[in-house]
Design a protein that fits this description.
The complex is a heterodimer of chains A (298) and B (403). Chain A contains 12 helices and 7 strands. Chain A has 298 residues and is an alpha/beta fold. Chain A folds into 2 domains: 38 residues, no CATH class; 194 residues, Rossmann fold (3-Layer(aba) Sandwich), CATH 3.40.50. Chain A has a 7-stranded mixed sheet with strand order 1-3-2-4-5-6-7, sandwiched between helices. In chain A, helix 10 links the parallel strand 6 and strand 7. The N terminus of chain A is likely disordered. By secondary structure, chain B is α+β, with helices and mostly antiparallel strands. Chain B contains 9 helices and 15 strands. The chains are: A alpha/beta (298), B alpha+beta (403). Chains A and B meet through helix 7 of A and helix 4, strand 3 and helix 5 of B.
Chain lengths: 298, 403
């Protein structure tokens, strides 16, 4: 995997993808690197067609580590972290912007534009799928296909017509549980978040941790995710969509996947053998194979 | 299952990667109030509260899949009766003995949970307090900014005020000169000789006087003191000045006509404006050196003093109320006949600190002094007296020697 940075410039040069970046490098224009730092963008792969993998709630791009490498031979693979998660730039976090998923979607759009990408394939897990869908509503031309892994437009029950799977109390309980699980390491993380430039070892420590998320960001992201309701925008989606539905997914039940498939115009649904909510982690082979099927289907 | 593990002082369970329970120990079975056969083969969600189901799906299972283990995750178990038990869970799929299943140790933390809840509440309180503090600081900062801009505004206004003061001072100085210019000069001739003193407490005075030679033997002398002092009083003195200047020089002059004219003028001036009403005390003397007669009216003014060459003193005291105070007052002139030469002292109440009872002997004791020397001594006495008297008034006096 090529790491963005100096190596990327040579990689891009080699592939003659975009003179723009080379110009930027020659001019020493750091601002162009800002979005890369902000979302910890990583690129790899030999192909021309870009494929973005977006993580779900609570984790970062490492969730894709069993799946994404399978696409490097034929595609240009792009991974990123949401601001406030993983190795993103925590200082770029603004509560006002990220209190709804549109804020995250805006970052995806900006990332595509900065990378001069068009007609990308976007694979999103869980809330990552919703974020991609919202980004496609902002800039439909940027997207060629949306592949949604365990998506849900609304997690809260709206009985009798809609069964999202949860009552409001369940979600409040989750937020509380998250807070209690953060007690131990909140202090450690906040030190990192506080841009402790005079203590670079803290950043190194953070790199060693897995699925690191700032507690404040996680709390707000959880609310933005689980209290959202995007059922009304499903019909506005114009990009070709492919839904991968797990068996026994208590977070995004089968009924929710079917509901989405029914409401998005150009949509197909595949029912997986994998169980649970994270098939890309628990059943990476099946997940990879199904994503390839979706790609072939378009 | 090993007897030791079955009865270990903590819950133990084993499950497949997708969460199906394959093994539970007796401790956990009892904790959850189930029978062992009710749990094995079931999904772990059965013994989890709803939030915990979410949490296990979102964090626990993915973490184990990626890292192989988790430590100290806090979740809540649900007993058969729906009771909730907070636990800490350690889980691992490493150290594989029989298969790839996930082995979990579950420790109830009821006490610790209470403590952590307290901590969480305290943390939230602290965060709220910190936010309140930041808000307060922000508010203070805004207040400070406002204060600074207000101070700036005040400084600007002060500067404006200073400028205004300078201009006003200049204006008042000019007005004072105009008022002083209106004062007539003392008359010096073979029959009569006089000295005057005129001093405003502020820039402008509420006192005014006029001295007129009407013919070879007749002289009109008038002294007025408008109530108050400063600009408003000074304006009235100027209005009265214009009037008596005309009245005194009219044909058929009488003391009554002058005083009545001034009285009427004040009533007319303020008839529609009670708020602005001013009155004034006045004394007007018509001296005839040929007849050796002084006709006068004193309207509420301090008594004038006459002292003849023998040292006999006579007080020309007030016989009518001040001008402009009551309507329809009848003015009747008094007459003083003198035999030989003498000295006449007219003054306003700004000189009064000396007091009439003081001026009587003062006039007596200094009868031998020349007119300028007498004036000088009177001013000395007045300035000595003034030291204790912070409340200053306009001062004016006229000394007349009739030969």
């Amino acid at each position: 995997m090529y790491v963005i940075g100096i190596t990327l410039w040579y990689n891009l040069l080699k592939n003659k993808i975009n003179k723009y970046y080379i110009d930027a490098k020659i001019k020493g224009d750091d601002s162009m690197l800002d979005f890369i730092k902000k979302n910890n963008v990583k690129m790899s792969g030999e192909g021309e067609q870009a494929i973005i993998f977006a993580a779900g709630f609570g984790c970062d791009q490492t969730m894709w580590r069993y799946v994404a490498p399978q696409f490097e031979k034929e595609y240009r693979v792009i991974l990123f972290d949401y601001v406030g998660a993983g190795k993103s730039d925590y200082s770029a976090y603004q509560s006002e912007k990220y209190k709804t998923l549109e804020g995250y979607a805006q970052d995806v759009v900006e990332m595509c534009k900065e990378l001069r990408l068009k007609e990308v394939i976007y694979v999103g897990h869980s809330v990552g799928a919703t974020i991609g869908m919202l980004a496609s509503l902002q800039e439909p031309a940027l997207f060629k296909q949306l592949i949604m892994l365990g998506p849900s437009p609304c997690y809260i029950n709206d009985l009798p017509s809609y069964k999202g799977g949860f009552e409001r109390e369940d979600l409040d309980g989750l937020f509380e549980m998250m807070e209690l699980n953060y007690i131990g390491w909140a202090n450690y993380l906040s030190k990192v978040v506080m841009k402790n430039l005079e203590r670079p070892e803290l950043a190194a420590e953070l790199e060693g941790s897995f699925c690191s998320t700032d507690p404040l960001c996680a709390k707000e992201f959880a609310r933005a995710t689980f209290l959202s309701d995007y059922r009304h925008v499903l019909q506005q989606v114009t990009v070709s969509t492919c839904i991968l539905q797990c068996k026994d997914d208590s977070i995004a039940p089968k009924e929710v996947g079917i509901y989405m498939n029914e409401h998005i115009k150009e949509s197909a649904i595949f029912f997986m053998e994998a169980t649970g909510h994270c098939p890309h982690v628990s059943q990476p082979e099946e997940t990879t194979q199904l994503i390839f099927s979706c790609l072939a289907n378009i | 299952m090993d007897e030791l593990l079955d009865r270990a002082p903590c819950g133990f369970l084993s499950m497949t990667e997708d969460g199906t329970i394959t093994l539970v120990n007796q401790t956990l079975v009892e904790l959850l109030d189930y029978k062992r056969e009710n749990l094995v083969g079931e999904h772990i969600n059965l013994i989890l509260t709803s939030p915990s189901c979410l949490f296990v799906q979102l964090y626990l299972l993915p973490l184990i899949a990626l890292e192989g283990h988790v430590e100290e995750l806090y979740i809540t178990l649900k007993t058969k009766n729906g009771g909730e038990i907070p636990i800490l869970i350690n889980a691992s799929k490493k150290n594989v003995i029989e298969n790839n299943n996930i082995k979990c140790i579950l420790i109830p933390i009821r006490q610790r949970n209470k403590y952590e809840n307290e901590l969480l509440i305290a943390k939230k309180d602290a965060e709220a307090a910190l936010k309140a503090k930041h808000d307060a600081i922000e508010e203070l900062r805004v207040t400070l900014e406002t204060l600074e801009s207000q101070t700036e505004e005040l400084l600007r206004l002060n500067e404006q005020n200073q400028q205004f003061k300078i201009e006003t001072k200049r204006e008042l100085e000019l007005a004072r000169k105009i008022q002083q210019t209106s004062l007539t000069s003392p008359i010096q001739n073979k029959d009569i000789e006089m000295e005057t003193f005129y001093k405003a407490s502020k820039d402008l005075s509420g006192d005014i006087y006029g001295i007129y030679q009407l013919d070879s033997t007749r002289f009109g002398i008038i002294l007025l003191d408008v109530m108050g002092h400063g600009i408003s009083s000074a304006l009235i003195t100027m209005s009265l000045h214009a009037l008596f200047h005309r009245l005194i020089r009219e044909d058929g002059l009488t003391v009554e006509k002058v005083m009545k004219g001034l009285d009427n003028h004040l009533h007319e001036l303020f008839q529609n404006n009670e708020e602005a009403r001013h009155y004034c005390t006045a004394i007007f003397l018509l001296v005839d050196t040929d007849k050796q007669q002084i006709d006068y009216i004193n309207a509420g003014h301090p008594s004038a003093l006459w002292q003849d060459a023998n040292g006999t003193q006579f007080e020309l005291h007030s016989t009518t109320p001040p001008l402009g105070l009551f309507k329809n007052v009848r003015f009747e002139s008094q007459t003083l006949l003198y035999k030989n030469s003498g000295r006449l002292l007219l003054y306003t109440d700004g000189v009064d600190p000396l007091g009439t009872e003081y001026l009587h002997p003062f006039l007596m004791e200094n009868a031998s002094l020349s007119l300028p020397a007498f004036k000088k001594k009177m001013l000395q006495t007045l300035s000595n007296c003034q030291i204790d008297n912070s409340k200053s008034d306009d001062q004016c006096f006229i000394i007349i020697d009739i030969k």
